[in-house]
Every structure is written in structure tokens, then in C-alpha cells.
């Protein structure tokens, strides 16, 4: 749910405003809203305030860059030095750290050059011998691609320097290196010959450019042999500096952020010669904390709390408050924007239906157990306060996110296992082959005969096992229509629900356009659904005049609501009938739950059946081959289809369900209260 907010206006003396802002930082509940216009000054700071802000921001940037160069994680809290020492603390750390960073950068640059050119330079140095120190001769190294023609280069050199050059090439890795020796006075002519055949002189980067080939090769050998040791030495120096300066540096950095935040508050407030006015929002359940923080200032502060105007104020921030189960699904909600204040929070719907749909699609005990193991692994890393380094994606998942992700995966796994028992699938039909699951015709007929299907037993086929299958989706000959309609029922529920929310929000916000739009499409979609059921998907249009059928009555009522609603909003939505057809398609989109799941189940069955047939035809050796083939195929199938199994349930929630609610067309800023980062005097070094 969305926590209700109150708007607050705070006025205080300009002389004591820093203390008031600091108290608000300690309370950590006020979300500020900039004040624009009016008789008091607003916007950027001026004069002494602007100069003070620039100094604090300069020092903060210096502290931030030093911490980044140290690359250290936040240490244990340390006492905050006196404000007069902050500049010294930062500079004492910044100077040696900047030298260390420069040395690390130079070492990395040398290592990159050696990795790129080392083999080529060593080969060229061996080819050149002592000629690279000659006073009369010039050496011109170059690189050759496999497609380059040496004979063409030789002809160009013979034309420019007849009998006054030497050309040699040698293979290095996948390419070749070459060396042209000429008189020093004719170096430009040799370089021009290279240009004629679209080749260029090899120029080494950085400090290696001016070195003779022999010296460059020797230097690269030194880098290759001693680079790892030097890197370890620099890492040790960095760790030492981090232990020495890190605690005080972090304490000063946090205090500087708090001080810059004070400047920011002043910049978004209205300022006069003797007064300062702030405005913002505070959650209703935290208003007491705000009042408590201001009570100590007596008549030096005046404030007023009043209800927000959720119909017209676009800046009201959103703070979500949900149960622990729903809150865990923030990793999924992170793909969405926040809901607009005063509207519908879909987090709990996502938390219920996303794992449910995923479980229906997979519906396999074996796959569910694999997901469960993965979820437990994620939770184990989170409990050990370890993150997950996904460097190949350029990402790092912190422990808190891993905890939520592991929890969500385990819920998804639980639904997979539960539906796997209903479909009788364990890595496809493996347990059915072992007669753990089995088809019970009498049970299926008793459960599903009301839908019009009936299982017809094949002659000579016996059915036995431990657990009967009650949702045999793989029995496509007679059960596919039932499974399809079952999936579409979710679409009927969610699409109608979405338009119902649209109506409720329109009434709440006194918005007649959205109210009548919702009524029209709710009635229209309901009418199409009744039409499909009453006519058996278009097979019996004679039902249109069968008013004894309640489905027909509901259908006509739905179409009437659509027509009335469309007439009321025809100026705003002239193409609403086309949107109605689109919404009918949105209901049909939920067939993905059936179709995607069935494809996955068929592939899993084929993988298991192939392995099982090897066992039946070859014997003991077939067991081994069957296991190898089955495991490989199951891994391939799961890897191939997993992204789709995750994306489809999310898409159904984001598009088919949330589009009718208006969720995707409007949002509000996140609740981001003014907070203190550095410890206050009474917190014993702990940050609030």
C-alpha cells in the first residue's frame, strides 16, 4: 500500500536555520519540495553562502575521489575530527593516494603495452640485433596482416630505394612483423614505400616510442617478469593507506555530505534577510518524529501540517508499506516505476501472480528443485554477507538484493513443485515411466467431465502407480482445451480487474473521462467474454436471441455499458472500439501461460523419453547413455526457455493487467527524506 502523506511548511529565523536543518536531518523524515517564486529569495545561493557551498563541495569531491582511488569498503565508524581539521585529514590522505594511483595507472599502462606489443617487440629486437643503435642506419618496424603481400612491399621499396635497403619478416602469433633497414637519410623514402602498399610504421605508445627496439624489449621483459610482484606491492600499499586513512576519511566525507545537504536545503527554500521557509512532505505515521525534532526550538520555529492535494499536486512522494512477503518482491518491482500517489499499488498483485504464473508454466518437480537449490545458494551468500560479482555483465549484486532474490526464487520454486505434483512431471515424464505418477481415467472423468471432455481408455493399456495426475496438460488429445481455458480465466480476471481499478480511481479523483472510459471498456470486455462462452467461441450464433441464457443477458448489458461510456468520452477517445478489440486480445494473451508451459513440457518429455528409450533398447549401457543424453537435453531445454518463462509472467502483469489501471502512464517521485549520514553527538559513533 501507499503510505498517506501530509504536507508541511516550516518557517524559522535565518540566524538559527542551520540548527533547524540539522535537527531535521537527525529526524530523517522530511521530504523537501523546492519553493519557487514568491517575495523571498529562491534558487541558487549568493554571496557568502555560495562561497561556503563551493568550498564544502570542493573538499567533498576531493574526499570522494580519494575514497574511490583507495577502492576500500566502508570501515567501522570512527570519531569525527574537529571541523577545523577536515581539510588536513582529506589532504593527508589524498596526496599519498594520488601518488599511488598514478603509479598503479602507469603500471597498468605498461602491462597493457606489454600484453599488446611484447611478442612483436621481442621478435623485432632479435631481428634487429645491434643495428638499432647504429648512427648511419635507420630501422622501420611494421605489422603485417595475413592478407598483406610482402612482394608488393618489396616492389615499392625497390622502386624507391634500389639496392639500398634490407627487408625481413617473421611470423608472430596470427600475424607477422617486418623490419626495413635503410640509410638514416632515406628513412622518409622507406616510410613512403610503406604508405604506398597501405602499411604503416609500428609506433609504440607512451614512453616506449623513443626507445631502441632492444631497450624496449628488455623493458617489456622486466614488466612481464616483475609486473605481478609490483602490482601486489602497490595493492599492499593501498590496503595500508586504506586502514590508515579510511575511517577518518569516511567520517569527514559523511560530515561534508551533511553540510552540503544543509546548503541544498537552503537553496530549495525561500530565504529572506531574517527568515527561511521550507516546505515538503512527511508520512502521516512519521509526523510525530518531525514535531519532536522541532519542539525544542520553541517559538524560534513555526510549522504547519495539512493534508496533501493528491488530485493536483504532482510532486507528492511515494513510500510503499507492505508485508515482509510482498516487500521481498521489490527486485521485480524495480523493473517498474513507482505508482502515482493516491492510486493503486500493484506490488502485492505482482507478489501473488508472478510466481504463480511461473509455477504454472514450469509445473515440473525436478526443475522446481533446481530453482530451490539456486534460491538456497543465493540466500546462503546473503547470510554470509557476500555479494554476487557478475563482472561479465558489468554488475554487482549486493547481499541485501541477493536475500530478496533468493526468497523470490524459492517462492517460484515452491509453485513449480506444487504444480509439478498436479501435472505429474519430474524432468518431464521420468516419474511417470517409473509409475510414481499415473493416469487414472475414472478420476479424470470425475474431475473434468463437466467441461465436456472424457478420457477414453485404450484397449490393453493398464494404468497404475502411486499418485494420480489431476492436471494432465501433456495429454493434448483431450485436455488441451481445458488447460487453455484455465489460462484464459486468469486473463478474464486480471483485465476486468484492471478496468475496475480504472473506474474506482476515476470516481476517487472525480475524473469523469477516465471513469466513463473504464465503464465502457469494462462492459465491452465483459460482453466479449460472455459472447465467447455463450456461442462456444463462435460456433452457435443462434444464441444471440436466447434470452433464457443469462450469459446473453450479461453480454447485452456489457455492450450497452460500452456504448453509453463511449458516447460520454467520444471526443477524447473516438477510436475506443478499436481499443476494445485490443483489450479482447489482452485476455487472449494469457494463453501464453498455457502455450509456453506446454512447449516446455513437451520438450522436457522428449528429453526424458529419448533417454528412457536408450535404456529400454540397450540395457545397462543404455542407462548411462540415457542419463547423459537426458541431463544434457534437459539442461539445454531449460537454458533455452528460462528467459521466456520469466519474461512472460512479468509481461502479463506489466502490460495486460497494469495498462488498464493507468499505472504505466503516470508516476510520482520516490520518498527520499533529508537524512544525516555522519553520527551526531549522542549516537556513540553510529549513523542513524
Structure characteristics:
5-stranded antiparallel beta sheet, alpha+beta, extended, 3-stranded antiparallel beta sheet, 688 residues, single chain, 12 strands, 59% helix
Question: What is this entry, summarized?
Answer:
InterPro entries: V-ATPase_116kDa_su, V_ATPase_I_N. With 688 residues, the protein is an alpha+beta fold.
Description of the molecule:
This protein is of the alpha+beta class. It is 59% helix and 9% strand. The strands form four sheets. Strands 1, 2, 6, 7 and 8 form a five-stranded antiparallel sheet that branches. The longest helix is centred in the middle third of the chain and has 56 residues. It is extended, with a radius of gyration of 37 Å. The C terminus is likely disordered. It comes from Deinococcus arenicola. Pfam families: V_ATPase_I, V_ATPase_I_N. Belongs to the V-ATPase 116 kDa subunit family.
Amino acid at each position: 500500500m501507499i503510505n498517506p502523506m501530509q504536507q508541511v511548511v516550516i518557517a524559522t529565523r535565518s540566524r538559527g536555520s542551520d540548527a533547524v536543518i540539522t535537527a531535521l536531518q537527525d529526524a530523517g523524515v522530511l521530504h523537501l519540495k523546492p519553493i519557487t517564486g514568491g517575495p523571498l529569495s529562491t534558487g541558487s545561493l549568493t554571496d557568502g553562502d555560495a562561497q561556503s557551498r563551493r568550498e564544502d563541495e570542493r573538499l567533498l569531491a576531493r574526499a570522494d575521489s580519494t575514497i574511490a582511488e583507495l577502492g576500500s569498503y566502508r570501515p567501522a565508524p570512527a570519531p569525527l575530527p574537529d571541523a577545523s581539521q577536515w581539510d588536513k585529514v582529506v589532504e593527508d590522505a589524498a596526496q599519498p593516494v594520488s601518488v599511488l594511483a598514478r603509479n598503479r595507472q602507469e603500471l597498468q599502462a605498461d602491462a597493457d603495452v606489454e600484453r599488446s606489443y611484447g611478442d612483436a617487440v621481442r621478435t623485432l629486437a632479435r631481428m634487429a640485433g645491434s643495428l638499432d643503435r647504429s648512427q648511419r642506419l635507420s630501422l622501420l618496424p611494421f605489422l603485417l596482416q595475413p592478407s598483406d603481400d610482402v612482394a608488393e612491399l618489396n616492389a615499392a621499396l625497390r622502386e624507391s630505394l634500389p639496392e639500398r635497403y634490407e627487408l625481413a619478416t617473421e611470423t608472430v602469433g596470427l600475424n607477422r612483423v617486418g623490419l626495413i633497414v635503410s640509410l638514416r637519410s632515406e628513412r622518409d623514402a622507406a616510410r613512403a614505400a610503406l604508405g604506398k602498399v597501405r602499411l604503416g610504421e609500428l609506433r609504440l605508445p607512451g614512453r616506449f616510442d623513443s626507445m631502441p627496439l632492444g631497450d624496449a624489449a628488455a623493458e617489456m621483459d622486466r614488466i612481464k617478469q616483475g609486473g605481478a610482484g609490483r602490482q601486489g606491492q602497490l595493492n599492499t600499499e593501498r590496503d595500508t593507506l586504506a586502514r590508515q586513512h579510511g575511517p577518518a576519511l569516511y567520517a569527514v566525507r559523511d560530515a561534508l555530505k551533511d553540510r552540503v545537504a544543509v546548503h541544498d536545503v537552503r537553496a530549495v527554500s525561500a530565504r529572506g534577510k531574517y527568515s527561511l521557509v521550507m516546505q515538503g512532505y512527511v508520512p502521516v505515521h512519521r509526523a510525530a518524529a518531525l514535531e519532536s525534532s522541532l519542539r525544542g526550538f520553541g517559538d524560534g520555529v513555526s510549522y504547519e501540517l495539512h493534508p496533501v492535494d493528491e488530485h493536483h499536486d504532482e510532486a507528492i512522494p511515494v513510500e510503499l508499506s507492505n508485508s515482509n512477503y510482498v516487500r521481498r518482491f521489490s527486485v521485480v518491482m524495480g523493473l517498474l516505476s513507482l505508482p502515482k500517489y493516491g492510486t493503486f499499488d500493484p506490488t502485492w498483485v505482482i507478489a501473488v501472480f508472478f510466481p504463480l504464473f511461473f509455477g504454472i508454466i514450469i509445473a515440473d518437480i525436478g526443475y522446481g528443485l533446481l530453482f530451490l537449490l539456486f534460491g538456497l545458494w543465493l540466500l546462503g551468500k546473503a547470510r554470509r554477507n557476500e555479494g554476487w560479482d557478475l563482472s561479465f555483465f558489468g554488475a554487482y549484486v549486493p547481499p541485501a538484493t541477493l536475500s530478496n532474490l533468493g526468497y523470490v526464487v524459492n517462492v517460484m520454486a515452491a509453485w513449480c513443485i506444487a504444480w509439478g505434483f498436479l501435472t505429474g512431471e519430474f524432468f518431464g515424464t521420468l516419474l511417470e515411466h517409473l509409475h510414481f505418477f499415473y493416469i487414472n481415467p475414472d478420476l479424470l472423468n470425475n474431475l473434468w467431465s463437466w467441461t465436456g471432455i472424457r478420457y477414453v481408455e485404450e484397449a490393453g493399456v493398464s494404468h497404475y502407480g502411486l499418485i494420480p495426475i489431476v492436471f494432465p496438460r501433456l495429454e493434448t488429445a483431450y485436455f488441451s482445451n481445458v488447460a487453455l481455458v484455465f489460462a484464459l480465466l486468469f486473463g478474464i480476471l486480471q483485465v476486468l480487474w484492471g478496468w475496475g481499478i480504472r473506474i474506482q480511481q476515476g470516481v476517487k479523483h472525480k475524473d469523469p473521462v477516465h471513469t466513463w472510459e473504464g465503464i465502457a471498456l469494462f462492459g465491452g470486455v465483459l460482453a466479449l467474454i460472455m459472447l465467447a462462452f455463450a456461442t462456444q467461441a463462435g460456433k452457435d450464433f443462434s444464441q444471440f436471441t436466447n434470452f433464457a441464457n443469462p450469459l446473453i443477458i450479461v453480454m447485452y448489458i456489457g455492450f450497452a455499458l460500452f456504448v453509453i461510456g463511449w458516447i460520454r468520452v467520444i471526443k477524447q477517445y473516438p477510436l475506443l472500439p478499436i481499443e476494445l478489440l485490443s483489450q479482447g486480445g489482452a485476455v487472449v494473451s494469457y494463453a501464453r501461460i498455457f502455450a509456453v508451459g506446454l512447449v516446455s513440457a513437451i520438450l522436457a518429455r522428449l528429453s526424458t523419453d529419448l533417454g528412457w528409450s536408450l535404456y529400454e533398447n540397450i540395457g545397462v549401457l543404455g542407462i548411462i547413455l540415457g542419463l547423459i543424453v537426458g541431463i544434457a537435453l534437459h539442461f539445454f531445454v531449460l537454458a533455452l526457455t528460462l528467459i521466456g518463462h520469466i519474461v512472460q509472467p512479468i509481461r502479463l502483469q506489466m502490460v495486460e493487467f497494469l495498462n488498464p489501471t493507468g499505472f504505466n502512464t503516470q508516476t510520482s517521485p520516490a520518498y527520499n527524506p533529508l537524512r544525516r549520514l555522519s553520527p551526531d553527538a549522542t549516537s556513540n559513533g553510529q549513523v542513524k
